[in-house]
Amino acid sequence: MNRNYSAALDLSGREAAFALLDGETVIASEVRPMHGRESAQLAGWVAAELEKAGTSFSDVQRWTVGSGPGSFTGMRLAAALVNGWTYGKAGIETRCVPSAAALAANLGEAANEGDRIAALFDGRNKELIFFELAISGGEAVPTGKEEVLNAEQAAAFFAEYECEHLIALEAEQSALALLLPERILAQLEPFGSIRPEALALAKAKPFDGNLADLVYIRPAVFTKPE
Fold this sequence. Notes:
26% of the residues lie in helices and 31% in strands. It is α/β, with parallel strands linked by helices.
């Protein structure tokens, strides 16, 4: 039987996420806590998940890496692993897709065509990351609007900003509560994890072979040249 395997891997936060699909059929979609030294288990965990599905690295034709916003170390590790697994292999396609889009996938049918979605992340250092997406063609696509905000900046920013959905990870809600105005915090829709299959299913982002297209949580990432 011919298989059309694609996979997605994300380590942008404190959890690792992996999905395996055959065409558009989801075979596996798993999320587990993994940060710090635990990240050394990432390659073995993926191999075990592939084995459970009755397949292996050599059977996966397309790989998608979650590009954040998120941890420098985690995202670089995921990208480096996929690069190593696919290096020099003909016909294998790779790309990065924002992890924020996989978080937005939790909205499901609650998100309509054209809706704007503000994905908020804990940026550490008493800052938050604002990453905007919009529903286009049935999927959440980045608009290019990104901000790093402290509490004072967040108050000014959200006094002028409106969107249909404000989303975040449940694990980061308490950190965001220290930075967000009460009105915005009341609108926040928290989700337990991203949906890694949404990374693999994304149609708007081409398989361009660029595994360095990552969005880090540090403000320097968004600094533009003079």
